[in-house]
């Protein structure tokens, strides 16, 4: 697959509108390798764009902020480098107004994903699109423990010694994986909400750290975390989401949950 992608190759950044730059990646390619055959979650991939610009009818530049929501059950995810190139292709093209640009983006992204994608643009002069997220629940990062496994190992996951039923939210800023094509590091804050037998916090943190050398797209990493927890810890309900740091003016926030919940799209401090 890598030889077909623009990711990792030196390319010119086009500044004329070109929807053909979008490169879809079938979700089934990765999901066939997950430990569960039937996916027990629903969710969304939320992209936030901070470097959106185009020309108005008089040729004057306009800048904007954008939010793009790709449903988890779309046949394709959108490869991030192609997404950035596509957004940059608006830079030298003229459009009547913000609504026209928003409609173009929504249509093109929906075609690439194979399912309806929502796009929401707002002028950069307005208040920030995303208020800051202060951190929910218990932060695992203060646990003092020895880590020596940096290759993905779901066998590190374990229940607490007294695994009574709990409802808790845990988060860590130590999630780091790598782009499967270029090897560039991807950094994120990961949040885990669950109801069920108590998960051993130290084992969960060691498992998160074990992604450090792992190469997989952002969306796939979060689905893998969800499936590993679902299979090995058997929670009654589970939500896993991550707030990845931005690259090239885009950040992504994959969200997977066994429950019908609303994702609030706040930004972590590193975003």
Q: What number of structural domains do the residues give?
A: 2
The percentage helix is 10-25%
Spatial strand sequence of the major β-sheet = 5-3-2-10-9-8-7-6
Calculate Rg over CA atoms.
Answer: 19 Å
| Total strand segments | 10
Largest sheet: 8 strands, mixed
Q: What is the 3D shape?
A: elongated
Following the backbone from N to C, one meets helices and strands in this order, namely EHEEEHHEEEEHHEE
**Model regions low in confidence, pLDDT < 50 over at least 5 residues:** none
Named at the architecture level, the CATH assignment of the largest domain is: 2-Layer Sandwich
Q: How would you describe this protein?
A:
The protein has 271 residues and is an alpha+beta fold. The chain has two domains: 2-123, GTP Cyclohydrolase I, domain 2 (2-Layer Sandwich); 138-257, 2-Layer Sandwich (GTP Cyclohydrolase I, domain 2). Helix content is 20%, strand content 30%. The strands form two sheets. An eight-stranded mixed sheet has the order 5-3-2-10-9-8-7-6, with helices on one face. Strands 1-4 form a two-stranded antiparallel ribbon. Strand 2 (42-55) and strand 3 form a beta hairpin. The longest helix is centred in the middle third of the chain and has 16 residues, at 98-113. The two termini are 29 Å apart.
